[in-house]
Amino acid sequence: MHAPRALPPAETAETAAPPAPAATKRPFTAPIRQRFAAVLPREPLLRNGHLLAVSSLINAALGAVFWVFATHWYDERTVGLNYATISAATLLSTVGQLNLSDFLVRFVPAAGRHTRRLILACYVASIACSALVAVGFLLLVPQIAPGLDFLLTPVTGLFFVAYTAGYAIFALQDGALTGVRHPGWVAAENVVFAVVKILLLAVAAALTLFAGILISWAGALVVAVLVANVFLLRRAVPRHEREAPQTERPPRMVRYSTADYVGSLFRMAAYNLVPLLVLNTLGPAQSAYFSLAWIIGYIPYLLATNMGSSLIVEAAHAPGQLAQHAFRVLRHSALLMALGTVAIIVVAPYFLSFFGPGYGEHGTTLLRLLALSALPNLLVSVAIDVARMRRRLRMVVGLQLALCFLVLGLSHVLLPELGLTGAGVAWLVAQCLLALYLLIRRSSWLPGISEHSS
User: Fold this and answer.
1) Is residue 36, in this structure, part of any structural domain at all?
2) For a 10 Å CB count at each end of the chain, is N or C smaller?
């Protein structure tokens, strides 16, 4: 079932499309789509953010099912090694995609008739760079990650490179779909990805493939990328090119993307190097326990990211409303985030126990700390997105650089002393310090602060 189209600001639910003729049969899925649309906010800023959040929740729920199967079909050591591999590939794809996903979110709304060319150019650059850095990583595995030496066989090495390049396109197409105001299709592609991934995992487990987890992710990416891009390039982009003729000058776009890319490298290093620190410091079993807690604890982080993407798209259409949009996102998301954090803290030991007794025993405290860290992260995430829109690129880079050094530095110190709990403490302390700085210096990054603070 296709998700409902996100309506532009000038449209309303009543005027978006003319009524269907009486003789025309409506698809049987129409009532379901209408009921789903009725529960979403009408305001495009919140509506599109909610659709992206729904996409993340669906992906997280189906991802949890995937890991339930994985932890029952594979032992802790195999799960830990495969998850560390996927984290490494995700980091490498982030390096290789040049942060062009956020670039597309920022510039596709105003790309006009250049939209298709812009998207395809980003795809080509990302595939080439991601494959190159993946091959380079494989050559360095014996020196920097000897625990991942199983990747050096031809088949697993090929799937590793394919996953790295495929994940780059997977991220870019999300940015493109968000930029053309079709966030519902982000949810659809995530469903395709998750379902195919589970099916391929079952096949790999039946064949007793050690790298079955990695292979299932790589194969599912291929399917999801093909499905999403048929819709994106054949329907969504042509319509967007007709309706959005504005174009932003390439030199400004290049300068912006270069600085934003540097900042994104620091953020993704914080996200993806911690699993490798856990693997090298505590071993494969503890890496498995960390991986499941991180997957669940990252869900509230995704809410902030999704609302930020919607903020950027709507602010690109109406730059004068950036301050109002930022306050709207903060107020609206804070309540949802608080409720989600409380829920995770309460259910953490019970939910983790579904993956096995060791996961609940070793990962509960870590998961609770990660959930708490998502609250200050909301302010940090919105501040970065506001800085992007205002082209305050020093702040964009500086905040993400500080996050990286705080998280990795504290994790390096605390993991040997506190075990997995040390990683949770590192994330919570780092986010709280950055949020405190932003509250003290709020007038330096948030426009119109005086009129909202009265």
Assistant:
1) no
2) C
